[in-house]
Amino acid sequence: MRAVRSRDNKSTERKLRASMVGAGTRGWVMHEKSLPGRPDFVFMDKRVAVFVDGCFWHGCPSCYRRPSSSQEYWDNKLSKNSNRDKRNTASLEEMGWSVLRIWEHELHDLQDVRSRIDSALAGRLN
Q1: What is the pTM of this model?
Q2: CA 37, CA 26: separation in Å to the nearest integer?
């Protein structure tokens, strides 16, 4: 599992980053260390944090397929990941942040994902 990248993944973060750059979306930074969970994209001035969650690693309800081997290991791993995601989201919301969680499979419709991000940004005051 060491080879699995937690950041700068081609199928998730890089795909959304390229789409946002192409669409002219500005004002974000990646992996802000000072925030819980190190969100993938952070719009500091609008206090919007965006996480792009891999369907396998975060247990997407529509895509996740339980491995046939080492099931107890994977069940525990996914449970810990899910609980961590919930804690990080709650912490950010308590700090006054708006949090968007985007599933990897949702990146097949980048226009819709950008629309959700734009809506979240429009709903936040400077």
Answers
A1: 0.88
A2: 22
